[in-house]
Design goal:
five-stranded mixed β-barrel; Rossmann fold; S-methyl-5-thioadenosine phosphorylase activity; 25% helix; alpha/beta; 287 residues; Nucleoside_phosphorylase_sf; EC 2.4.2.1
Length: 287
C-alpha cells in the first residue's frame, strides 16, 4: 500500500482541524459502506503523517445517528491507519469531573439502538472480543502527553453512549449514575466497535462541557455556556494532540493484528460472495 498513514485523528464537536499541520492532500473516498463524514485531510505534523476526519463533518451537519461510522473506519483502514485518537465532548455524571476537564474512558455502556454497528452481516458473521473496548497502550500515551503539558486528566472511567440527538431526561441521568457511568456522549459507538473489528487500536479522549441534567443545584446550562466550554476544550485538545503525536505512529503494539481473522464463524460454503467482496476492502488477505 502506497503512502501508508499510520495515525488517524477523529475530531468531535468543536475540533475540526489541527493547527500547524502541513496539508498534503484531501480525499473523500468511496468505500463499500459509502463515503466518510467529510473529506479526510492528510497532513504532516512534527514529521509524521496524519489522517484527520471531522466526525460530524465540517460545520457539524451530521447528527450522532447519521455519522457514517462504517465508511469512516473503512476509509481510515484503507489508508493504513493503525491507531485512532478520537476526541469527543461529553456530559459529566460525577461531581469531580468538572466542565472543561479531560477524561480517558476505559469502559462503555451501550444505549444506542438505531445504528449499523458491524461490518459482518448479510451472510458473513464474526464475533470479535470487546471486553476492553479501548487500547490500554494508547490510554497510557495520552496520560503521558497530558502529564507533559500539566493537564490533569481523569482515567479509567465508564462512558455511556446514548442514541440522541436529544439529551437525557433527568430520570435517565440519575439512572446512569446508579449504573456506575461517569460520563455520557452520543458518538463512541459504533465507532469503537468498528475500529476493533478493523483491527485498529482506538482510544477516545473525552472533554467535559457540562454536568448533564442530574445536578439540580447547578446553574441552568445555557447554549452560550456549552459553546464557551467547547471552544476552551478544543484549544486544550490541540495542545494535547501536539504533544501526543510524539508518542504515536511507532507500530509498537500489534495486539489486534490478525484478531478478526480468528473471529470469523460462517462456514466458507455459506458465505455471501457480495458481502465477502465488501470485506476484502478491509481484509484483502482473509478471504
Amino acid at each position: 500500500m502506497a503512502n501508508v498513514v499510520k495515525i488517524g485523528v477523529i475530531g468531535g464537536t468543536g475540533l475540526y482541524s489541527i493547527d500547524g499541520m502541513e496539508i498534503l492532500k484531501e480525499i473523500h473516498p468511496d468505500t463499500p459502506w459509502g463515503k466518510p463524514s467529510d473529506t479526510i485531510t492528510i497532513g504532516r505534523f512534527k514529521g509524521k503523517e496524519i489522517a484527520f476526519l471531522p466526525r460530524h463533518g465540517k460545520g457539524h451537519f451530521l447528527n450522532p445517528s447519521e455519522v457514517p461510522a462504517r465508511a469512516n473506519i473503512a476509509a481510515l483502514k484503507q489508508l493504513g491507519v493503525e491507531e485512532i485518537i478520537a476526541f469527543s465532548s461529553v456530559g459529566s455524571l460525577r461531581q469531580e469531573i468538572a466542565p472543561r476537564d479531560f477524561v480517558i474512558p476505559s469502559q462503555i455502556i451501550d444505549r444506542t439502538k438505531a445504528r449499523h454497528a458491524t461490518f459482518f452481516e448479510n451472510g458473513m458473521v464474526a464475533h470479535a472480543p470487546f471486553a476492553d473496548p479501548f487500547s490500554p497502550g494508547l490510554a497510557k500515551k495520552v496520560e503521558a502527553a497530558a502529564k507533559q503539558i500539566n493537564l490533569p486528566i481523569h482515567s479509567n472511567k465508564t462512558l455511556i453512549c446514548m442514541e440522541g440527538p436529544l439529551f437525557s431526561t433527568r430520570a435517565e441521568s440519575h439512572m446512569y449514575r446508579s449504573w456506575g457511568a461517569d460520563i455520557i456522549n452520543m458518538t463512541v459507538l459504533p465507532e469503537a466497535k468498528l475500529a476493533r473489528e478493523a483491527e485498529i487500536l482506538y482510544q477516545m479522549v473525552c472533554m467535559s462541557t457540562d454536568y448533564d441534567c442530574w445536578k439540580e443545584d447547578e446553574a441552568h446550562v445555557t447554549l452560550e455556556m456549552v459553546l464557551a466550554n467547547l471552544s476552551a476544550n478544543a484549544d486544550t485538545a490541540k495542545k494535547l494532540l501536539s504533544t501526543l503525536i510524539d508518542h504515536l505512529g511507532k507500530s509498537d503494539d500489534n495486539s489486534l493484528v490478525g484478531s478478526t481473522k480468528f473471529s470469523l464463524v460462517t462456514s466458507p460454503e455459506k458465505r455471501n460472495p457480495e458481502q465477502i467482496a465488501k470485506l476484502k476492502y478491509l481484509f484483502p488477505t482473509y478471504f
